[in-house]
Known about the structure:
Layout: H1 12-26, H2 32-38, H3 44-70, H4 75-89, H5 97-108, H6 112-116, H7 123-138, H8 141-146, H9 151-168, H10 177-200, H11 204-232, H12 245-248
Amino acid sequence: MTTVAEQKYAAPVGLEVRLRAIGPERYHHRHPFHQLMHEGRLTRAQLQAWALNRYYYQSIIPIKDAIILSRTDDAAFRRAWRKRIIDHDGDGTHPGGIEKWIALAEATGLKREQVTSLRGILPGVYYAVNGYLDLVSKRSFLEAVASSLTELFSRDLIALRIDRVREHYPWLSGGLAYFDARLTQAPEDAQFALNWVLEHARTEAEQELALKALRAKCDILWAQLDALYFAYVAPGWPPPGAFQPSVEAVPK
């Protein structure tokens, strides 16, 4: 017979199933902007807008991870998590994810300075990305770690994107080093974070916090694509100060 105390806890496998179920429902692989990308229906200008705006998200990833590191006194956790910062910032000798993303943006025809200056980023993207920093800094440590679990779903999307880019946008193939690296980095990172969440989200309330944080992260990713779709696909209304492809795009 199960005791009242035991009823407060769900088996870790139950939580893992619930976490993984969020991906098929809410991950941004389902967004219409990504659907157009994978069908080869985006223009070069639209891909430039995507690469430019996504750079802002890429640029804050090591900052986000540094915030998470600063919130724990667990040295073993810090040793495992700091790998993420090196993966994105590089180690001073080998380029990290941020540098590789700049190379991807340059492959679309953008200039490096145009990307790194953050000029033209959509307001909706700013708000979404800054919301992620708020999540990891102001919510519980469990929620901060759980929010990273979108990486559970990213490998399949990355593999699909690599294939479709090479098929539909061969001129962009030279900029895929970022995605090639994430094929191995993301699953490793996700497994560590998943194991940690399963170990520390023991009560029903804690498990609900972890699930809510992962849904919130999915919403943050989705909101960025909403802004891109509205500005550059339909109705195609980029706000004042945003990237204007007809003016700023560099033809090839």
